[in-house]
Amino acid sequence: MSTSTFIQRVIHPEESPHDSAEIRPESVVHPATRLAGAEGHPYHPMLVTIPIGAWVSSLVFDVASRVSDDPATFGRGAIWLIWIGVAGAALAAVFGLLDFRTIPRETPARSIAVAHLGINAVAIATFVVDAIIRMNAWKAPYETPWWGIVFSTFALVCVAASGYLGSRLAYHFGVRVAGRAMQAEGFVHNDGPVKI
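^ thats the sequence. predicted structure below, dont judge the formating
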């Protein structure tokens, strides 16, 4: 089978009984604007690594402040990391909203996207409140208080739950995943299409 035949079978699955048709709306495949990233390369999933990394690191710093000889340094570092995570989350949210706009209303994907957005809002609000209270109540050279660790742990559980929903949007429903024709390019061998 030639490369063009293989790609045609992927683009037009009705000609092949083993392929399923592309049923995703065009809006969830292609970006609403170039600001959201090119087809198959949305910015939102890349940007969420900033807050996730910062917030996980802040929890590690919190624990380190309880067991190290220099609790103040780790405690202050944890607060900085929380704020870095909040700033990164705000940036990721802007691009997430651009992707959110592409999902048709009254669909299971839209319901999951609303839950994803809501849980993220709870996580961000929790981290903001946590950081503000820490800045006003925490006095160096003491370690991070246990309640700060509890706040961060709760917020990270929210982030994990939201991340699961975000992965369902991408991997189960294919929101902002490349269209079938672009995906087919990945399965063309130098000697011709891969036999399925």
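The chain has two domains: 1-17+178-196, 33-176.
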